[in-house]
């Protein structure tokens, strides 16, 4: 062995032993991180997207999945500021779908909301010009009542925007090498290894969640990266799960961009929370050549606390190679305009709420299926003050336990890791019978169980009209319930004034299209520069997809 090779090898071994336990166990056998290809327009200048069925191999048996132009997820679309984009979406699925360009400032007619349905076998053409600056956006279905299912099946992709200034920055720009797209999603499979999706009282209340964590469609992949600065383009593509990411060795995360574009300057964090639908661009320093993991920290969100998310969970191994890195972290990134004087601006209040009966039944179902471990500190035990204070409906659940009365809570608690899907299926059957029985105080219409300003979503009934080009202050209130509501507004990028009554964190103070609403009032400054007519109104909704699908969405027009 040459001395040089020996040095390389011993360095590699030294680094390997510094890995956490999972790294030592799996370092050699992790699959490579799949990189979604950038899809170029065809010879006529049109980007061709095809929603189609596919197949994945996550467990023993093949899993039926959906993807754009492939088995799962979709290619990356990429366009520059000033560019005219034409996209043709073909639907080869057996059900109607739509495609929404999440984060793009395009007219309502091109936005791909729930009205822009594409029946099976049909096509939809969208044409628009990119006017906004560089950002990491995405695309996904927006079929009302079906969005959660269609995203769970695999339909989602990145839509990256560039501008002259962003391309001039010394940031890493080698796609899939040091400019790394990361779509993070959790999924749940049934006993036949098929996607186990239901829109039921449980998912309508807390969202659909799973126990299989995927990064670009693969469980804990590994990426051979240059030894240098790395740019991670993170998308939380989960239906309902909020993620908090960190580096396994505690190295810094330098946030350089949020949903709607680059920040003014990097913000250094040790951990970064991403709500469903949110994107952040993060730089990490891999110049020391040591491998590390991107990990998901244990979560506290209702329903999301079950294994494997109850502990640090690796989502990506970064294995620096001997290739020298290019690019670096600049001190300044983009010009971020100062907030306008907003005291006198028109304001609107959107109040998010859940039918107390849905809340009650959802909590019962969560407790019954998964036990205390899923309750995120909430408890249905008698005498729990916490439950009464935080979940209005929990009081009701305790007061008239009805169908729960005969159940021994002690028996329902089981380590999540030991749960078998077969057992769960049986329990679900039992619960379904109970929910239809004496437990219900009044009939619950699941599909209108979530509301904005007291109304469930009505497709053909825009709730208000915004004046084109007028900056408004929107107050989005989740007061009265403790659920997480990542609130998204179409057709715009906004600036957050406050989140849940707190000053906005520096890395969330740039351009955003999702704001956190969790038990408090959040305020954003919003402006629409494109029209949205009545028949193609914009949407504003909770991006916890099962809340959206069961009514927590409002439509509005933008008019000159
Ligand atoms: Cu919500």
From TrEMBL:
SUPFAM superfamilies: Cupredoxins (SSF49503). GO terms for molecular function: ferroxidase activity. The gene is cueO. Monomer. CDD domains: CuRO_1_CueO_FtsP, CuRO_2_CueO_FtsP, CuRO_3_CueO_FtsP. Residues 60-165, 448-559 form the Plastocyanin-like domain. It comes from the Bacteria. It catalyses: 4 Cu(+) + O2 + 4 H(+) = 4 Cu(2+) + 2 H2O. This is Multicopper oxidase CueO. Keywords: Metal-binding, Oxidoreductase, Signal. Residues 1-27 form the signal peptide. Pfam families: Cu-oxidase_2, Cu-oxidase_3, TAT_signal. Its EC number is 1.16.3.4. InterPro entries: Cu-oxidase-like_N (IPR011707), Cu-oxidase_C (IPR011706), Cu-oxidase_fam (IPR045087), Cu_oxidase_Cu_BS (IPR002355), Cupredoxin (IPR008972), TAT_signal (IPR006311), TAT_signal_bac_arc (IPR019546). It comes from Aeromonas popoffii. PANTHER family: BILIRUBIN OXIDASE, CUPREDOXIN SUPERFAMILY PROTEIN. It is an enzyme of class 1 (oxidoreductase).
């Amino acid at each position: 062995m040459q001395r040089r090779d020996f040095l390389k090898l011993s360095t590699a071994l030294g680094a390997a032993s510094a890995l956490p336990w999972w790294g030592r166990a799996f370092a050699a056998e992790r699959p490579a991180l799949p990189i979604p290809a950038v899809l170029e327009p065809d010879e006529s200048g049109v980007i061709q997207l095809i929603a189609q069925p596919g197949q994945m191999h996550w467990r023993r048996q093949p899993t039926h999945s959906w993807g754009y132009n492939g088995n799962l997820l979709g290619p990356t679309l990429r366009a520059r500021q000033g560019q005219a984009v034409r996209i043709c979406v073909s639907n080869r699925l057996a059900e109607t779908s739509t495609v929404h360009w999440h984060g793009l400032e395009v007219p309502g007619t091109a936005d791909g909301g729930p009205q822009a349905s594409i029946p099976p076998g049909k096509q939809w053409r969208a044409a628009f010009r990119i006017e906004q600056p560089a950002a990491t956006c995405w695309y996904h279905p927006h079929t009302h009542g079906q969005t959660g299912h269609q995203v769970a099946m695999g339909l989602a992709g990145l839509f990256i925007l560039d501008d002259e200034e962003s391309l001039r920055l010394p940031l890493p720009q080698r796609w899939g090498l040091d400019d790394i797209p990361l779509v993070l999603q959790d999924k749940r499979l049934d006993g036949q290894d098929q996607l186990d999706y239901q829109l039921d009282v449980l998912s309508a209340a807390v969202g659909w969640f799973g126990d299989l964590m995927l990064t670009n469609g693969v469980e804990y992949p590994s990426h051979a990266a240059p030894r240098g600065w790395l740019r991670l383009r993170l998308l939380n593509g989960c239906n309902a799960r909020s993620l908090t990411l960190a580096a396994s060795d505690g190295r810094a995360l330098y946030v350089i961009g949020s949903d709607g574009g680059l920040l003014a300057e990097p913000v250094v964090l040790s951990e970064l929370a991403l709500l469903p639908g949110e994107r952040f661009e993060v730089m990490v320093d891999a110049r020391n050549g040591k491998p590390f993991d991107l990990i998901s920290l244990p979560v506290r969100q209702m329903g999301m606390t079950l294994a494997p998310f109850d502990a640090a969970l690796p989502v990506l191994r970064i294995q620096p190679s001997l290739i020298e890195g290019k690019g670096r972290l600049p001190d300044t990134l983009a010009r971020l305009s100062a907030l306008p004087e907003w005291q006198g601006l028109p304001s609107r209040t959107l109040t998010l709420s859940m039918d107390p009966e849905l809340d009650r039944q959802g909590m019962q179902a969560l407790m019954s299926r998964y036990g205390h471990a899923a309750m995120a500190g909430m408890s249905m035990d008698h005498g729990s003050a916490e439950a009464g204070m935080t979940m209005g409906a929990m009081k009701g659940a305790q007061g008239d336990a009805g169908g729960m009365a005969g159940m021994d809570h002690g028996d329902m608690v089981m380590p999540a890791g030991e749960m078998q899907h077969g057992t769960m299926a049986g329990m679900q059957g039992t619960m379904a019978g109970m929910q239809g029985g004496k437990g219900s105080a009044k009939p619950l219409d699941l599909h209108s169980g979530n509301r904005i300003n007291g109304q469930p979503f009505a497709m053909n009934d825009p709730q208000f009209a915004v004046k084109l080009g007028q900056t408004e202050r929107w107050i989005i209130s989740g007061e009265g319930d403790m659920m997480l509501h990542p609130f998204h507004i179409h057709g715009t990028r906004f600036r957050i004034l406050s989140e849940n009554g707190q000053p906005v964190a520096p890395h969330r103070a740039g351009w955003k299209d999702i704001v956190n609403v969790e038990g408090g009032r959040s305020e954003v400054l919003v402006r629409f520069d494109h029209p949205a007519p009545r028949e193609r109104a914009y949407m504003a909704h909770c991006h916890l997809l099962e809340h959206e699908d069961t009514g927590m969405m409002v439509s509005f027009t933008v008019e000159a």
